[in-house]
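Assemble and predict.
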Amino acid sequence: MRVAHMTTTAVTNTATALPAQYTLDHLDHLESEAIHIFREVAGEFERPVILFSGGKDSVVMVHLALKAFAPAALPFALLHVDTGHNFPEVLEYRDATVARLGVRLVVAQVQDYIDDGRLRERADGTRNPLQTVPLLDAIEAGKFDAVFGGGRRDEEKARAKERVFSLRDSFGAWDPRRQRPELWDLYNGRHAPGEHVRVFPLSNWTELDVWRYIEREGIALPDLYYAHERDVFQRDGMWLSAGEWGGPRQHETVEARRVRYRTVGDMSCTGAVDSQAVDVAGVIRELAGSRLTERGATRADDRLSEAAMEDRKKQGYF
Amino acid sequence: MTTTHAQPAAHASGLPTGRRHDLLRLATAGSVDDGKSTLVGRLLYDTKSVLADQLDAVERVSRERGLDVADLALLTDGLRAEREQGITIDVAYRYFSTATRSYVLADTPGHVQYTRNMVTGASTAELALILIDARHGVVEQTRRHLAVTGLLGVRHVAVAVNKMDLVDWDHARFEEIVAEFRRHAARFGIDDVVAVPVSALFGDNVVDRSDRAPWYAGPTLLEHLEAVPVGTDPSTQPFRLPVQHVIRPQSAQHRDYRGYAGRLASGVVRPGDEVVVLPAGRRTTVSGIDRARADGTIESLEVAFAPQSVVLRLAEDIDVSRGDLLAAADTPGLVTRSLSGTVAVLSDRPVRHRDRVLVRVGTRTVRALVEDVVDQLDIETMEQRTAPDGLALNAIGRVRIKLAEDVAIDDYRALRRTGAFLLIDDSDGSTLAAGMADAPDRSAGEGI
């Protein structure tokens, strides 16, 4: 309302803009910036790897990386930390993508760590916080010196202070007070042996940008991003998927609802939202009308405390 | 219950309207307690970029602290230490959009490591949004913000004269502050200044027009952000492309393909254009410009312009690798081993005479020696004084640097991307200083 009024005013006093043939829209800007970041990493690091879960942000990352190096093949391996509670359709999508691209996939299994006692199941059944140790071990074992993550600064307040190139010590820890200033597009990836750099090519994208880009590029996603019938039950104000991972408990009733997922992570803490959106355009329409953030709506792990994400990042989380 | 409500897409989240939706990067700067976090919170809130769960959290915490109104500053303080101490420590990036534009806002704190943070935020900004408390007017911090803005070459400056409610919306007071601000801005070579009287706390003239200042006929702050021209016409600048990566598929389908991947730092390039590979100086012709389509196949372009990321093919099979700069053959800039420029020190380690460092320009990193710390800028007096002990954290001064290898560099004032450099500590890899090159000294370099 207010903004609509404002826009009409603005149109009348718009100064001379760029010549039309030399203008880029904001998605072109974001794409060019991300491609530049992928190429910088290829130039400055020995063994980069892309964190790939089959979630939409990681799918967009791989799409951008392919565009950055075409017609050559993707020069990076993929890494997935499997909590053991992942959605089967997302794992299928992951494996189909890996087969189609002919790239190497490294999978770190949280279940292995639980089975041999290095990690213990939490009382609340949530396995997201358990991913950090297998992730750090996989980075060390693979000697990966740059690790691409799909994190976006719009997701969460602690992420808003993250750099595009984020230096991590040998424990993977993020120290917000020790971050390097990041100037122009001169990314400084220098690091000591044992340290690595987390790289976030989607830093400046918002959830809506990601969906608009998925629409523009015609990127295929796992089906659970679109409205479908699913057996769900309510916990902490979210619709969780009934399944072998441990839900529902007593007193929690399962019902069939038409839902979709805004994020896909561990089944134990990733909630679905009621939705009628069967395609990308429908999702974009719903997002434009949503009054909740992506993580606020669907991630129990971020609700644990006001500083939940900051604490996990300091311990070496994505 | 936290479910998504499907509503008609009528609100201000910025759905395409048929017009091209462009991107404006801006940086905020303010002094202690002048209400910057509140202003940024207000911009986010009034453009409906704050969603219900974020607002719930802010209202809950505000209530816990015994406040009557929601403290919008809480929207932007992301780290625990910031919330506990009620201060902002680090640059934070915010995103909001309207029907016209998407905005990337670098929110830079006013007091802790102010120069370091503001230099970081301003380096990518096209517009600097500077806050002034109407009760205090132009203060030392304001002059420092102006110095950094001018030094970093930010083209547009918007001044929000905040807390106008606390000076009873006094027209004369506003004009007095703006006149003094313009006087200082002119000293730093900044002439595009738009000043808006606002109250961030109550939202006057931030997004919505206020009726408390009938004497003010200019735009609201957001109206100005919507209208300011973005970008530089690339056809007015010489072509530059720092080579990031050499693409050699060595596949059956692309057996002899060899392309040079990079993002145009400035200018326009077309197939047939003559270019020079710097620093070596070899001339050749662009034979093709490639870009991947969504399906991974390659399309060849008739033209590419800054800031697009593309792959260039060259007519001759010459030695080109990461660290080289492709430049327009008729306006190539200068290749030199002697770099003069202004640096802003960002690290606890000072920059001193005879320091050995690394210099990063474009995609090239070379060993270097600080030959001389010429002077230091005194922000209070705007005088240049000597710096016998070197330049400490947050200091700004001029240096002369000897480079171990030839480097192609431009005058930062003319070409921001290829005139910018970093000083890097070779021992731990940390970024010591941000640098802006002077017009290269032709007597010291080898012109092409």
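Residues 235-328 of chain B form a domain with the Elongation Factor Tu (Ef-tu); domain 3 fold (CATH 2.40.30.10).
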